Amino acid sequence: MSIALFQNWPRTITTIGLVALALTFALSGLRLSAWDALLPLFEWMEGNWFGYAGKTWGAVFAVVEACHLLGLALLGGAVFACDGKLLGVLFTGYRVDLIVRETHRIFVLGLVILLATGVFMACGVAMKIYYLPVFWYKMLALAAGILFTFGVKLPLLRTGEDALKPWLRRMLALTSLTIWLSVAATGRWIGFSG
Amino acid sequence: MLNKLIHDFALWLDGMTWSTALHESFYMYNWVESTHVVALMLSLGMLFLIDLRILGYALPNVPATDVAKKLQTPMFIGFAVMIITGVLLFYAIPVRTSQSLWFRFKLVLLFAAAINALLFHRHLRDTPALAIPEANSPGRLKIGAALSIAFWAFIVICGRLIAYDWYDCSYSQSEGIRILAGCVDGQTQF
To answer: DSSP letter at A152?
Structure first.
């Protein structure tokens, strides 16, 4: 474990620093100030062309929602395949780096679709989600997922298969699965709230 | 006649205490729906990886037959959970769902996707050359994979559109929509 962590120490320390900053932000009054400061952005989102289209044409909003789900499926496929390999239950007999590299392209494609369609959907219901705690939980989970994948998981996995102990690989997989399942579940709960 | 039978069946389901309880339970219903989405993430995720591998866009260094074989089990687990939660969602709101135009399209597309999947797996099994990583998939397998992605994309779109009430029988609809949605003359429950 020590080999893997310290071979990537700048990125590891940066990630730990970012997590510490995020926690400080979340637990202090800064969070509420930032929330107030974001109100004009959400008002602008609802008033722009995307917001108008999302509110006016229900069919467009519904199709974009479906594309969001398809993006989620792509991302989910990549996450389950990669983490299944790290857990030792999928793609046994193949090298970890091969599966990680090849599923990552699909992960990025899924993430891009999720973000693009998510921004459009957020514009259509910007003022509603601004006041929904579950929306902010989803944003937190999404930020954690992106930060974890690009800042922790991939750098550690790039140190090479032999540098990582099996328990650390399993921990990476379980953390990744927990975060991305939380993103999916909190996203669905936005629809039930408000 | 068939629409009347479906409507009667839906009314019978709707009269069950558990159906009402599930519909009216905020947390239970929402958990079932959230599980449906997470199962979709697993099952369609695996399916898309298999289809994209056949089309040459994913996992090019892993043989196509291996991708299909290794991802089949989690895909079926996801589909099983998706079917169970889907049946529960139907059970919670049987009358409106059974008369939803989108739900009916979704069922037709599910049937088409199942036939396509059967043929696809038969062709995949009969193409031993795909056990080699660099092997290109034959044209008919590629067509099957593309059709699979298209069917499921439309299934997801129809599933999402069920939530919208544009073509509900409770509104005034054209005769064509009434027939397709299965509206019953004189029905009082929607």
So the answer is: I
Report the candidate in A114, A179, A107 with the shortest Cα–Cα distance to residue B59. Answer: A107
The ipTM is: 0.90
- B156 CB neighbours in chain A (<8 A) are 66, 69-70, 73
Sign of CA dihedral A102, A105, A107, A109: negative
The answer to whether A130 and A42 have CB atoms below 8 angstroms apart is: yes
| Distance separating alpha carbons of residues B154 and B106, to the nearest angstrom | 8
Query: Which class for B143: exposed (0-12), middle (13-18), buried (19 or more C-beta within 10 A)?
Result: middle
Question: Are the C-beta atoms of A82 and A104 separated by less than 8 Å?
Answer: yes
Chain B residue closest in CA terms to A78: B45
d(CA B37, CA B45): 11
Closest CA to B157 of B80, B44, B1, B23: B44
**B41 and A84: CB-CB below 8 Å?**
no
User: Taking the model in full, what pTM does it have?
Assistant: 0.89
pLDDT tens digit sequence for A132-186: 999 999 999 999 999 899 988 998 888 876 778 889 899 999 999 999 999 999 9
- CA gap A141, A184 in Å, rounded: 9
**Which among A62, A106, A188 is the nearest to B52, CB-wise?**
A106
Quick one: which of A60, A55, A149, A138 has its CA closest to A110?
Answer: A149
What's the CA gap between B34 and B28, in Å, rounded? 10
* Token pair for B19: 């159906």
Rounded Cα distance between A174 and A87, Å, is 8
Residue B182 CB neighbour total at 10 angstroms? 21
